Amino acid sequence: MLNEVRKGILFTAVTMLLLGGGYPLVSWGIAQLLFPAQAEGSLVRNRSGQVVGSRLIAQAFTRPEYFHPRPSGVDHNAASTGGTNYGPSNPDHLKAVGERLDARARLEGVSPAQVPSELVTASGAGLDPHIPPAAAALQAPRVAQARGVPLERVLALVRAHTEPPTFGFLGRERVNVLELNLALEEL
Amino acid sequence: MLTESFAVAFTILLTIATSLPLGRYMARVFQGERTFLDPLLLPLERLVLRLTGIDPAESQDWKHYARSLLVSNVVMWLCIFAVVSLQKWLPLNPDGIGNLEPTLAFNTVSSFTTNTNLQHYSGETGLSYFSQLFAITFLQFVTAATGIAACVAIIRGLGGDRQSQLGNFYVDVTRATVRLLLPLAIVVGALLVWQGTPMTFEGAAKATTLEGTEQVIARGVVAAEVAIKQLGTNGGGYFGPNSSHPYENPTPLSNLVQTWSIAVIPMAMIWTLGAMLRRQRLAVVLFATMLAIYLPMVGFAVAQEGAGNPAIARLGADQSTGSMEGKEVRFGAGLSALWGVTTTVTSNGSVNSMHDSWTPLGGLMPLVGMWLNNIFGGVGVGFVNMLVFIVVAVFVAGMMIGRTPELLGKKVEAKEMKLASLALLWHPLAILVPTAIACHVWATTPDPGTALGWLENPGPHGFTEMLYEWSSAAANNGSGFEGLGDNTPFWNIGTGLAMLFSRYIPILAPLALAGFLARKPTAPETAGSLRADSATFGFTLWAVVVVLGLLMFLPVAVLGPIAEHLALGSF
User: What is the distance between the alpha carbons of residues B571 and B503, in angstroms, rounded to a whole number?
Assistant: First the structure.
């Protein structure tokens, strides 16, 4: 039995060093060598080199001159993430969705049936960086008006920032909100 | 919807196709035959065995094998308990994270030692980089390897003819780690970084948003952990929301890589069995039987999530893309549903959408996956769980045709049946009894909402949250209806114990069973014997799994998801 325990301890020590230490170091080395920008979190900088966010992480946009992301169960807090975990029949959840729907329809001046459900439901991590193209098109007139630019230019920008499904079928067509808003600033 | 269905079908077909060569590779590794990766990996395997003081030639009977498995697991449990309880003072803690309190540490360590990865802490705020690597990532390798080793030993037992030796635990665990999981994890990890998963020792990033507010973005050594969390059917994420977090799973391509990683080794294990026993037909029958349960589940979940939530439809929003609460735009409802079923049948438990927010009947599928727990199943342990049902199916079929039950030419007798029954009955027992206790506690506590703070959702959905938690613990799955406030002593200690018993009973009973079978002589199969590698047996097994595996759960399914579905329709 003592021999058995000794083997257990030695095996734990050796594999802990190999898998907890060696493996992440090799992974880290490959990551830093081949894909340094992604390894650091795909951070986006402005002209003066300041970090303005990550292209993968949604940030809160509330002003009319920006496209808005999906609602977030954690107020777009990228340090402590999560979903709402509301069940489909939860009255609090349905009330919140109903309120968002009314507010969105009023803000964009459309009927609720034109609002894609993505704009009134929270994502899994509360940091979904994308909205569907329909949700961007819905917001374009309001953004164009707030910025005093022709609607056609804003819509062209949305089209240019629409990513197709990978290989044409994998995942959904989507627009990255932060990148779209950064491009708006350049207009 | 058509494109989404195509993406779902493509993912499944790709995984099945690649599981074949991987299964053959695994069989060669565990039988000590040569493989093309030997020049790279054999020296590492020898180094680990030499440093540990293992004689690779020493073979163990089932008792010795089980002893090595248990002792090594106890040692790891104790070491990791020390790590997470002392992480505040250990290195690699740039964000200054404190120690886990004792009941949370008990739960976390039991969870990761049993390959469950149920998480009552939230990754980015609960564990230091040191703990993420030396506790979590380390255990995600060796516990997966432990399951694979147990499975390989059991396969050897099934193929044995009047012998008692099942192989050497430490050799099998080392091979599974060094020659299977490690190379795959390095490749998968690199692919994930390419797609955008961070891999950095820097602390959180600080950004000034376009609207001028401060945003703190947690990151870390994510890619390395995500790779092994999927390949080892662990499922414990780096961040709280797991693979729905855009850093853990940034693109549809990373989603494909991860869905593949979840299922490929459990699928390959069936082909490994076929190759090791030299019974390719048996492997095909088992694989087809599992597919005949897995595919309808996927189809049903995709349809339910694609149809959306009727209550939200009534509010008037455009729900043409399906139920999107708790789901990510880049994956959509279809690939989220595929993931949810795959991660629960395989005891992985990682999520790319929040299961708590699924439609009621869609959300029933992850529960069914965990109740069965043998459709491909966790790495290694999936087949071990299925073996129990195979023994029962052989017994039932033997009764029906009036012959002594035989499995692969070996007589199945009372001793084997008792062990199979123990493993079979433990699973529903470990789910239903604690669920009843939790309901009792809830019902007898005055003002339970405030006093206990467990349930975020009222009505049948609240019941399902508790049911899901116990199902997840007993299936060593680790996913959750995360609306459950589970970081309390009741849930920490309760599910901690459930995970420990539900890991070791269903491994040790079949290991003993295989040990007994190995000693028996193998009778040549005749025209009158019941052939396990026939379509008839496949159908019998399918029926036994569905009836025995699910019937016991029908009442709770009605009380939870089905009641909620009916209520939702009648608003």
Answer: 42
Minimal C-alpha gap between A125 and chain B (Å):
5
Structural domain that includes position A167: 42-186
Distance CA(B49)–CA(B46), nearest Å, equals 5
The answer to whether B426 faces chain A, any CB pair under 8 Å, is no
Query: CB under 8 Å to B288, separation ≥6 — which residues?
Result: B538
Rounded to two decimals, the pTM is: 0.96
Structural domain for B496, as ranges: 2-569
Cβ contact B196:A42 at 8 Å: yes
Number of domain units in chain A: 2
Same structural domain, A73 and A21:
no
Chain B residues with CB under 8 Å of A45 CB are none
Contact map slice: B 106-125 vs A, CB within 8 A: 122, 124-125
Say how many domains are in chain B: 1
Question: A160 and A124, same structural domain?
Answer: yes
Residue B491 near chain A (CB below 8 Å): no
Residues A27 and A47 in one domain: no
Q: Give how far B123 is from chain A: nearest CA, Å.
A: 9
> What is the full per-residue pLDDT of chain B (571 aa) written as tens digits?
789 999 999 999 999 999 999 999 999 999 999 999 999 999 999 999 999 999 999 999 999 999 999 999 999 999 999 999 999 999 998 888 999 999 999 999 999 999 999 999 876 678 998 999 999 999 999 999 999 999 999 999 999 888 889 999 999 999 999 999 999 999 999 999 999 999 999 989 999 999 999 999 999 999 999 999 999 999 998 998 999 999 999 999 999 999 999 999 999 999 999 999 999 999 999 999 999 999 999 999 999 999 999 999 999 999 999 999 999 999 999 999 999 999 999 999 999 999 999 999 999 999 999 999 999 999 999 999 999 999 999 999 988 888 888 899 899 999 999 999 999 999 999 999 999 999 999 999 999 988 898 998 889 999 999 999 999 999 999 999 988 988 999 999 999 999 999 999 999 999 999 999 999 998 887 777 788 899 999 999 999 999 999 999 999 999 999 999 999 985 4
Q: Contact B354/A85, CB-based, under 8 Å?
A: yes
**Chain B, nearest residue to A162 by Cα:** B330
Assess whether A13 and A74 both reside in one domain: no
Confirm whether the ipTM is greater than 0.95. yes
Alpha carbon of B229: minimum distance to chain A alpha carbons (Å):
13
* Whether residue A104 is found in the same domain as residue A176: yes
For A133, which residue in chain B has the nearest alpha carbon?
B329
Q: What is the DSSP letter of B214?
A: E
Distance CA B196, CA B63 (A): 46
- Percent helix, percent strand, percent coil in chain A, to nearest 5: 50, 10, 40
